[in-house]
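Box 3.1 A note on notation
Throughout this textbook, protein chains are presented in two layers. The first layer is the amino acid sequence; the second is a token string describing backbone geometry. Keep the layers aligned when reading.
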Amino acid sequence: MLSAVAPDRSPENAIPSVTPGVFFGAPVALPRGPHALPRADVLAEQRERLMAAMTDLIAAGGYTRVTIGALASRAKVSRTAFYECFPGKEACAFAAYDRFIEVLLGALAERAGEAVDLAELIGAIADGYFSMLERDLVAARAFLVEFDALGLQARDRRRVALRGIASYLRQMHEEFRASDPTLAPLFAEEVYLGIVYVARQLACDALEEQRRPNLRGIGEILAPWLLTVYRPDALARPAVSRVPSRRRSAR
């Protein structure tokens, strides 16, 4: 049976770690010496540790400074174990990024599935995106700020992921407009992609400029603006003022 690993107090641990349970699982102890644990389970745990360690190191100093030795040491696996899991550090970085995107898109879809109208949908997607990033700032910094430095293949992966989100926004727009023709007509694909890039760039800037950015606050600011994009008449609607009721004076 696997058990949780105790926190590491070594100087290397001064590097911030990913938040367990958000994009990567919490590390668990592996048995030493002969054991009955299936090899597949051992490899799966080692891969998980290596992806989390890669994320930590990319966020801390960028991909080019990551070495196999530092990666294996932080993940508490041997070099041999590393090469059993990945052919090289680039493959490990791409696997970590793919996990990040998979979890992020899954969270967005789950939040969006609860929406009953467009306003709720926009709020759910905006809050879902920024709140997931805020829950694990190390992973957010690694894959929003530093990941492009891996080169063309990394940037291609990023473009595919963002286009996937943009395509989902278009799909949701089309579905809600089928039951609500007052919504704006469907936009060009570049408009949905532009919305995604605006959100991503604001998150990137906040992550670079602030140690603990209020990312959810960005979503709260963007959501009302996005609603006016999809529903232009929202700007023309007068604000409803709530006048406090007055008690009648007793005669």
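The domain at 91-234 is CATH 1.10.357.10 (Tetracycline Repressor; domain 2). The chain has two domains: 11-89, 91-234.
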